[in-house]
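Researcher: Quick test of sequence recovery. Tokens follow.
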């Protein structure tokens, strides 16, 4: 059979040989090579946080390691910091629990008289100001409110702001003296005409009238209103210890202070009209009403402050008598100094009284 293609291989228009071709055998060197898997940063880690297979080898076999316990393993810096944070949070939580437990035990008593380690019934708690550092104690570990602790705290608080206390005592002392002279014209006449015996006798006779004594009693009430500024400063010292000038003018319950000023003036009038009996009544009432100005400044109503103040004194009669006797003795000792010793004695004793009233009513005192 003849070759119709003229001795050349037939090809299709695209240059391919239409005749069947044998299938080539694959060679080993032509086989595709299997690549190593890529490095997995989230793969298996050793106990020190390093990757077990850092190069991604499939034939890598880590060496067997002895397991370590949490106590044997050396902690990392971040683990130490985390543990310190957890310990601080635990301590803060324990302190909050102790504070809540202490405040829960400061509930008011149902009776009208105060009990030991509990506030007076009906007397609200006075919230400390911002920035104050109250002397919180766990339940059952409260230091006793004794005259000795009050004495030490009072003089320590006076020393913390002694310049402010001396300045305010001098200023208010001069203002009280001016009020006394303003409401006692006969006294002014006697001082002005001291060289004339007849004028002095006339001034003394004029001062013995009821109208003159009533006017002098009004001056005593005004003097208490001025002294109330020192009461406010002493109460502020129990919350912040170091006081400023503005703390003396933070008066609360001004109506109650006016009522107490009327009582003070009435007691002064009674002691002037009836010298012996009136003086005894004035001493007894002053002793029983010692906590009343502090309670009024804490926001207690006038009536409840009177009842609560008498209840506090009767419940702590020994401490009240001791403080009253100490103050009277120091006042008598300041007579040779023409009353200048009261510039220091008066604020210190008011601080002692503020400390005792705060502790008797269950309020914290700044250490």
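Model:
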């Amino acid at each position: 059979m003849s070759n119709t293609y003229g001795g050349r291989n037939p090809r299709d228009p695209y240059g391919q040989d239409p005749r069947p071709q044998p299938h080539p055998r694959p060679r080993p060197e032509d086989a595709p090579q299997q690549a190593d898997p890529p490095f997995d940063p989230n793969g298996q880690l050793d106990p020190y946080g390093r990757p077990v297979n850092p190069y991604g080898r499939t034939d890598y076999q880590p060496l067997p390691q002895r397991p370590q316990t949490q106590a044997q393993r050396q902690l990392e810096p971040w683990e130490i910091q985390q543990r310190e944070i957890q310990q601080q949070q635990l301590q803060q939580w324990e302190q909050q629990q102790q504070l809540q437990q202490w405040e829960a035990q400061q509930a008011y008593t149902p009776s009208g008289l105060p009990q030991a380690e509990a506030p007076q019934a009906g007397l609200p708690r006075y919230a400390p100001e911002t920035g104050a550092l109250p002397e919180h104690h766990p339940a059952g570990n409260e230091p006793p409110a004794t005259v000795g602790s009050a004495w030490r705290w009072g003089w320590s608080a006076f020393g913390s702001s002694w310049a402010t206390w001396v300045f305010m005592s001098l200023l208010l002392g001069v203002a009280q003296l001016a009020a006394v002279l303003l409401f006692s014209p006969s006294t002014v006449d006697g001082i002005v005409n001291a060289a004339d015996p007849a004028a002095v006798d006339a001034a003394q006779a004029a001062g013995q009238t009821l109208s003159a004594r009533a006017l002098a009693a009004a001056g005593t009430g005004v003097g208490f209103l001025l002294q109330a500024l020192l009461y406010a400063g002493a109460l502020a010292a129990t919350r912040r210890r170091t006081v400023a000038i503005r703390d003396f003018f933070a008066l609360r319950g001004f109506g109650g202070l006016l009522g107490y000023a009327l009582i003070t003036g009435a007691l002064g009038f009674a002691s002037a009209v009836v010298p012996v009996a009136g003086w005894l009544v004035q001493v007894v009432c002053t002793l029983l009403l010692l906590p009343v100005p502090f309670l009024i400044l804490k926001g207690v109503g006038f009536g409840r402050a009177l009842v609560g103040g008498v209840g506090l004194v009767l419940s702590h009669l020994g401490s009240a008598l001791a403080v009253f006797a100490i103050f009277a003795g120091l006042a008598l000792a300041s007579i040779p100094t023409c009353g200048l010793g009261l510039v220091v004695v008066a604020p210190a004793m008011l601080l002692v009284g503020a400390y005792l009233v705060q502790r008797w009513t269950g309020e914290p005192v700044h250490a």
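The radius of gyration is 45 Å.
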